[in-house]
Amino acid sequence: MxxxxxxxxxxxxxxxxxxxxxSGPPSTGVGQVxxxxxxxxxxxxxxxxxxxxxxxxxxxxxxxxxxxxxxxDQDLLAARAxxxxxxxxxxxxxxxxxxxxxxxxxxxxDRIRSRVESPSANDVDTYYDAHPELFRDRRVFGVDELAxxxxxxxxxxxxxxxxxxRGIDELAAWLRSKGISAARQHGVLRPEDLSPENASTLxxxxxxxxxxxxxxxxxxxxxxxxxxxPQPVSRADARTWIERRLLETRQREALNRxxxxxxxxxxxxxLGEFSQQAEFIKPTSNQERAERSVDRGVGALK
Length: 302
What we know:
By secondary structure, the protein is α+β, with helices and mostly antiparallel strands. The chain has helices at residues 3-20, 44-53, 61-83, 90-114, 121-130, 158-164, 168-177, 196-204, 235-264, 286-291, and strands at 33-37, 40-43, 139-148, 183-189, 210-214, 220-230. The chain has a four-stranded antiparallel β-sheet with strand order 4-3-6-5. A hairpin with a 2-residue loop joins strand 1 (33-37) and strand 2. The longest helix has 30 residues, at 235-264. It is extended.
């Protein structure tokens, strides 16, 4: 398929297919119809889906009118594409099926998350007391940072070198001698910006000290602590954030359990270029997924 046609399908036809391709019978809910084109009904549900897919927060009349015009354009182009036989093209059929699968998977994930019980007041209090570094003893750190990208092994002796270093310049020079380019910057780090383990490590650091933190993605931060400013968060101020954090964690764990169950009960075979890479289909642990989804919202409470 020519590149221009693939771009057209991706940008215009697929969003419409998620909200209703012009291949089915006209809808019957007259109260929900916002436009009719050659007997094909465009509904308010399609309009809202288009707005949601574009992450439009405003629901003002002007925005909705613009979205309706876009929906009409999509319908006209999709109808012409079908008349020209594009719906029978292999690439288009694959793209449409992929879009349908994404919509179904998202709907199932949303259903699983909606069934998760909200945390209780006792759950919130327990979490607050268990994480003083995030709340009662929370500090915000000014740092001089060397950032090493992930996806590669750290040089041998890095941690020992960090423990003996007299300054960040010495470490930067040592890394250059190893042929490693590390981005250097001054910034501010909050405990909620980090994994729980790294937040605890940073909490124990002293001003003037140097620490190395490694993320779940494999990237490393070498930090010289320039300042540590107390910014505690009260139990009352933290309550909404903790409720959301606990609920999101439970929802993520519920989704992970469902996916793990589906994987274990399904016969998954890797073929072709992936036939020797069975480790790719191993379920990712909850801990690994949690560390990749760090919530950065506590700072907004201050």
